[in-house]
Amino acid sequence: MAKTITFNEELWKRGMFYHCQATEGKGLHTSLDTNVTSYYFSSSLDSMETGTNWNKAVIQSPVAFDGIFIFTYFARDTDFIINDGKPLFLDQFIKSQKYSVKEKKALFEELSDGRVVSPKDVLLNKAVGRYLWFFFEMKAGYKYSINRLTFRFSVQSYVQLLPECFQESKEGENFLHRFLSVFQTMYDTIQEEINDISKYFDPTLIEENDISWLADWVGCPLLAEESKQIQRKWIQNSFSLIQKKGTVEGLSRLLTLITGVKPAILETYRIMDFYSPIVYEEVYRNLYGKDIYSFLVLFKEEDLCLEGKFEEEKLEQIRNCISYYKPVYTHSELVILKPYLILGQHCYLGINSTVSTASMFLLNNMTILPFQTVLSDK
User: Fold this and answer.
1) Among 210, 224, 190, 185, residue whose Cα is nearest residue 314
2) Exposed (0-12), middle (13-18) or buried (19+): which is 357, by Cβ within 10 Å?
3) pTM
4) By CB count within 10 A, which of 138, 186, 218, 252 is most buried?
């Protein structure tokens, strides 16, 4: 089975940057206003085995390359070459300030095993050796970004698994190796996907583009694009939530998960049971309706931070979640409580109202406003 090396920030920074940089999460990238060609020279990638077959390089970018992007690579069994009768250690050569970009580029191109323009998946033909080096050349005037770079390699080639008569033919050995490396790479990629299948079911590891797919599996409705973190939390709690689906407790837990605030939920039949039919019809019917199979979900306005152009989108998302998780054949209503009292409207002690001792309003210790006074700024 093939092994892999995936670049992280530490691996990127072992190399040499010219007019580009590497950061955690973004990988290697250049700025749009770069008016000179950018280069990145890697340090050696060590497979720890001589004669390693470097099979494939996978270069992932969030967007297609607009400009000319060149990938050059080579492999050797030693980390040095003989230059003018002396050993030249390539990692030191790359980091050295004594050599210019042109000199480094010229040496890499001289040692090159392959050169590819604007690659995505690259079969590393002829790249055999313990150590692998590469460099990127990014032409000026364009923005480049590589958020993931992975190299696959194997110590054993499929050629070595064939009968000896195929291995003894030196004339066709290179072609046969390159031909079989296509199938070896495909097999290793499939095997790697199978071994890492758990990443598609772990909400903390799954990629952003696959969250909606997994969320659909566990009964999480489609949410706005900016709500990916909410979907991750939903998936993590899906087992306990699905057990309580259709109950007050389950709906309360779900809305708390989505909004960060625990709502108050009032069921109409409880209000009906508390008051006589005559009192309910006269006083409470306009607020709670006459359908016994209905309930209200109450949020304080300040808890939801309802402001700006996304206010209606946020309320609609909450309504969709209530509708999705409520019991069948019940009617629900989302009520946003104002931070003041209005007679005949929703007013709840301890939620949007309090009881305190009445006191008179004094102005300059001389003037008193009576209780029935209404202040207005008009």
Assistant:
1) 224
2) exposed
3) 0.55
4) 138
